[in-house]
Structures are given as structure tokens and as C-alpha cells.
Design a protein that fits this description.
By secondary structure, the chain is mostly beta strands. 3% of the residues lie in helices and 43% in strands. The chain is built from 1 helix and 14 strands.
Length: 190
């Protein structure tokens, strides 16, 4: 929502890749429009891997000049979400994965992942670098506290509030897999 002043640094951030839950390559030039000659943009259904898979699709992004990236999303019968990001073409200098969450959620970093805790549910994000296995760097930032990783939300025109972003990386490999699961906390004793 924020505003339409082209040179406003917050508007520039809000329109950037770093304001969204996508792979982030610092310093990479981005494009605003898909290349009409490239037929691979858009959402494509994937064949399910299991009988109980509820949803499976992929998309290719060429938003970074000189890079092509693919994201596969699968939702299992148990509600588990699996996301796989792969660099198809080009070599990113550094690749991060950004996960923005509302500021009213608690975030706890765990080995190769994070927990996002609300009042009724807990979400677990686990990341695996498939082509360069090992520990994954991770951090949490709020608002504009860090020079590179901001997390802001604009609920109404000209209003901007801080949110939180979980940052994984830099990731060394060309393919990363994320497993996202939810746990109901209403039946848990404190």
C-alpha cells in the first residue's frame, strides 16, 4: 500500500525482491516485466509424487538479469509443505532465502531452520542445501535494524510498520529444499 513516490527508499524496498519471500541475490539487477519470448514464466502443474499430495506446481523466474531460478511447491496430505528452489542458469554471487513474518509472531532460530510461534500454531521451517550440505547460516531482523535485510509492512496508505524476516544464507549450492510443517498449540500444556 505504502505510496507511489518513485524515489522514496521505502517504496523502492517494497517493490524489491528483498521485501518478498523469494530467493534474494544482493546487488543483482532485476527486471520488472517477464520476457515475452521466454515461454517458461507462469505456474505449471507438477505430477504428484504420492497419492495423497494435495497440490504441486512450479514456476520459473528470470527476475534477476543473467539468472533463471525455479521454485517447486508441493503440499502433502498431512499439510506438510515442501519448497525446492533451484538455480537453472547463471551463477549468483551470494544467494539468500528470505521468510517475512508478522512482528507479533515469536521467532526462534534452530539448527538449519526456524520456528515461528503464534498463539494457536507453531510453524517449523527447515532448510537443506542439497548441493552443498552442511550447517545453514540463519538470522532474524526486525524493521530497518540492518542495512541489507529490512522487513517492513504497509497496512494502509503512507503507513509503514516493522515486521520480521528470517534470513537463511548465504547458501552455497544451486538447490535448496524447505520443509514447512504446522503444529497445533491449543492442546499443549504450558
Amino acid at each position: 500500500m505504502y505510496n507511489h513516490q518513485q524515489k522514496d527508499p521505502i517504496r523502492i524496498y517494497m517493490r524489491s525482491a528483498s521485501a518478498h519471500n523469494v530467493p534474494f541475490v544482493p546487488g543483482a539487477k532485476t527486471r520488472r516485466r517477464p520476457n515475452p519470448t521466454t515461454a517458461d514464466w507462469g505456474l505449471t502443474p507438477l505430477a504428484p509424487r504420492t497419492d495423497g499430495e494435495r497440490f504441486s506446481a512450479c514456476a520459473v523466474s528470470r527476475m534477476y538479469k543473467g539468472l533463471a531460478m525455479r521454485r517447486d511447491v508441493r503440499v502433502g496430505a498431512d499439510g506438510m509443505i515442501e519448497i525446492e528452489d533451484a538455480v537453472l542458469e547463471g551463477e549468483p554471487r551470494r544467494l539468500y532465502s528470505l521468510w517475512h513474518v508478522p512482528r507479533n509472531k515469536r521467532v526462534r532460530l534452530i539448527r538449519n531452520g526456524a520456528l515461528v510461534i503464534g498463539t494457536g500454531k507453531r510453524m517449523r521451517i527447515e532448510v537443506e542445501d542439497l548441493t552443498a550440505p552442511g550447517p545453514i547460516g540463519r538470522a532474524r531482523y526486525i524493521g530497518r535494524a540492518h542495512e541489507r535485510f529490512w522487513s517492513l509492512h504497509s497496512p494502509t496508505f503512507n503507513v509503514c510498520v516493522g515486521s520480521a524476516v528470517i534470513v537463511f544464507g548465504p547458501l552455497a549450492g544451486r538447490t535448496q529444499r524447505y520443509r514447512i510443517g504446522f503444529e497445533d498449540l491449543s492442546n499443549k500444556t504450558p
